[in-house]
# Entry
Amino acid sequence: MNLTRRVLIGAAAAAFAAGAFGAAVGAADKKVAIVLPGSITDQAFNQVLYEGIVLVGKELSVETAYSEKVKQADQSEHLEDYARRGYGLVFGAGGEFVESTKRAARRYKDTQFVCLNCAVVEGVATVGYNNHAIGYILGYVGGKMSKTGKLGIVSGQKIKPILDIAEGMRKGMKDATGGGEVLITYTNDWDDVAKAKEATFGQVSQGADAVLPYLDNGIVGVMQGLEEKGKFGLGAITDLNTNWPKTNLISVSQDWRQAILHYAALYMDGKNESKNYVFNVGTKPLSLGTINPEVPADVKADIDRIVADMKSGKWKM
# Structure
């Protein structure tokens, strides 16, 4: 078992903040935790969520804690341990937490469990994004820029967000060019850089000229492989331009910091529910990222129009 757990903001500090700054009544008695499958320094999903739990502690003056590098077999133990220790809100980070959060919710009814980026789970709150819209934007630009009519996705596991993104990508490619193909490879490991790089080489050999990395630390392998082959990356989690400006074609940025802060604020106000919360493009937690300068002006104008339609609710899958 690989466990790292740290209390980020002490109860005493939370109590002081509640008294001094008018935080929600009872804030000192509330505690929030998150269980992460990967490293808090992966420059991807886990790091952003870790920064989110730090933000929750800072903005809401509540005691917070986290566990990182938790293997799937150990998820239930970590989630339920937090519940036993009085954490009223516990996040499970990623689609692989569906069964463990469901089990924990059945056993600890006084704790609100949240599955981030998951399919809908009975008795559990789920927080995620309009992945069809994310995929559509990436597929539209990728389709316009592709010379082969093929795009790729490399992911750790087959989870619902990936299937929705792929469906959106196919629709975006179809609207951009009349057709296209999306290749999907599952490495069965969210962090293995070598596996991710090998999967990327495999997709490039099949004709993919832009690939979406949907991984934790494994994202590094995908982007290294794309750099070596002179192909583009498509960002669906963080803005790839931050670390790979030449290789990033277009990114849509999921700001999980704001997403978990939003739900934690509902919890602090006693307004949290075990239902599905979905953020759309144009909201604070989900925004258009950087577009490569090589993308023509007319395609950028198309994307501006599409994003405006998404914001207004006019766009439909």
Observations:
- The first strand starts at residue 5 and ends at 7.
- The chain has two domains: 5-129+256-279, 131-254+284-312.
